[in-house]
Design brief:
The chain is an all-alpha fold and about 475 residues long. The protein has one domain: Up-down Bundle (Growth Hormone, Chain: A), CATH 1.20.1250.20. The chain is about 75% helix and about 0% strand. The protein has 22 helices and no strands. Helix 4 packs antiparallel against helix 5, helix 15 runs antiparallel to helix 16 and helix 15 packs parallel to helix 17. The longest helix has about 40 residues. It is globular and about 65 Å long.
Length: about 475
């Protein structure tokens, strides 16, 4: 879009009918869900991909290389936040996340065409890492755009509720990736899936991309950003105003160390690391591990909406910090109990469990999902309320993707490296498998201290006015 919209094109938030709000939320959420699906396909196959794209010979090195490639996508997410956040604050929210979804969809689909290490040698992991970096850049611009776009359409007193639908998309995308991979592994069989069937979920991104583009092309610009354009108040330099302004930089740092860092490690511990833990070191068959995690995700996902809506009543801060506190206090007992139910004798392979044990594991995974929904459900509303409209996309995207992309995204790699290290095994013996949990617990404690002492509640802030 070029030029300023006419005053008639700017619809006040209060005048937007509920049916239009539902379309805004559906369109934003569906596109974001597809992006998370694309991004997490690799994560769901990280253990499996080690044998396809990396030099064989050292099982631990292959696993760590595969997880490092998974983490590479997270490493560049803050850069994507800066690039696309700046564009979003200069040009608009709608057109920016059209670009992000196109970039994500194409890079994901190309992974489906990628030759393996057996075919092209070291070029295979190089190309794979490059595509993961492109995915990370795209996702760095997607979330901030979607959350900002929805938040700038909805009433102030229902922002937690409406933006919580965006928060479900990360888990639903992860859930969808598990479902697609599980279905392909089941229908193609182990041999065909490893030979070529793993490509199908990636190639499906072409269809998802077409649907997403069609829906998003029909969307209008957010009313608050359109109003800025009419009034000539669009930021001339979003990066400078976001990070060169001392007051705004303080809010960026508080958002990172007092909210998103802890939120990121809780999210990835409760979902990705739990899945990795079940498969390695507990040696559960992938079908069983996927089933247990999928059931817990399905049960827990509605709680994003519950805690988002609750945050409109009692505030964002206390819910998020309570989730982090509970996680820090209970992670070790939860994972110890999971081992006792899943594989107490550390058998080399577990293909079935008694129904009672499965129910117990699902309950423990669901408990972790509850923590995830507590910290993640209200955080979009919290972040958009911290920053002014003119630089909101840039300012909120960076701390979100540093917290989730760096503190959270590298968690599976860091935790696995710690648990498999010689130091850990020599120091803790059989308890070494739990040592990876020291990392998320420490980050949660840090976030509790910073958030508890220095962050004020934001729920009553009107986002079209400066925060004080």
């Amino acid at each position: 879009m070029t030029g300023a919209p006419s005053p008639e094109a700017v619809v006040p938030v209060a005048a937007i009918p509920p049916s239009s709000l539902r379309r805004v939320i559906f369109a934003s959420s569906l596109g974001t869900l597809f992006e998370w699906y694309d991004f997490y396909l690799y994560g769901s196959l990280a253990v499996f991909f080690g044998d396809l794209f990396f030099p064989p010979g050292n099982e631990r090195a292959v696993l760590l290389a595969s997880l490092a490639t998974f983490g590479a996508g997270f490493g560049v997410r803050p850069l994507g936040a800066l690039v696309f956040g700046r564009i979003g604050d200069l040009i608009g929210r709608k057109y920016t996340f059209l670009v992000t979804i196109l970039t994500m969809g194409l890079s994901t689909a190309l992974i489906g065409f990628l030759p393996t290490y057996a075919s092209i040698g070291m070029l295979a992991p190089v190309i794979l890492v490059a595509l993961r970096l492109v995915q990370g850049l795209a996702l760095g611009g997607e979330y901030g755009g979607a959350a900002t776009y929805v938040a700038e359409h909805v009433p102030d007193d229902k922002r937690g509720y409406y933006t919580s639908f965006i928060q479900t998309t990360a888990t639903l995308g992860f859930f969808a990736s598990l479902g697609a991979i599980g279905a392909c592994r089941h229908f193609f069989g182990a041999h065909d899936f490893k030979a070529w069937g793993w490509r199908v979920p990636f190639l499906a991104s072409f269809g998802l991309l077409a649907v997403s583009l069609y829906i998003r092309l029909r969307m209008r610009e957010s009313p608050l950003f359109a109003k800025l354009k009419v009034e000539g108040r669009v930021s001339k330099n979003p990066l400078k105003e976001s990070f060169g302004n001392r007051r705004n930089l303080k809010y960026v740092l508080l958002a990172l160390f007092g909210a998103t860092a802890g939120q990121g490690v809780v999210w990835y511990t409760g979902q990705f690391y739990a899945l990795t833990f079940l498969q390695k070191p507990l040696n559960l068959d992938w079908r069983l591990a996927y089933l247990l995690v999928a059931v817990a995700l399905a049960l827990g996902t509605p709680l994003f909406i519950v805690f988002g809506r609750l945050s409109d009543r009692i505030g964002r801060k206390r819910i998020m910090l309570a989730g982090m506190a509970l996680a820090a206090l209970t992670y070790f007992p939860i994972f110890i109990a999971i081992k006792a139910l899943a594989n107490p004798g550390m058998a080399p392979a577990v293909t079935s469990l008694p129904l009672r044990n499965m129910a117990g594991i699902v309950a423990l995974l669901f408990l972790q999902m509850t923590y995830v929904t507590m910290v993640y459900g209200p955080i979009a509303a919290f972040l958009v309320e911290l920053f002014p409209t003119s630089i909101r996309y840039t300012s909120m995207s960076l701390p979100y993707h540093l917290g989730n992309g760096w503190f959270g995204g590298f968690l599976p790699l860091i935790a696995t490296a710690v648990t498999t290290s010689a130091w850990s095994k020599a120091t803790f013996g059989d308890g070494a498998i739990y040592t990876g949990l020291f990392y998320p617990v420490a980050v949660c404690v840090m976030t509790l201290i910073v958030g508890g002492l220095f962050i004020r509640e934001t729920k009553d802030h009107k986002i079209d006015t400066p925060i004080h």
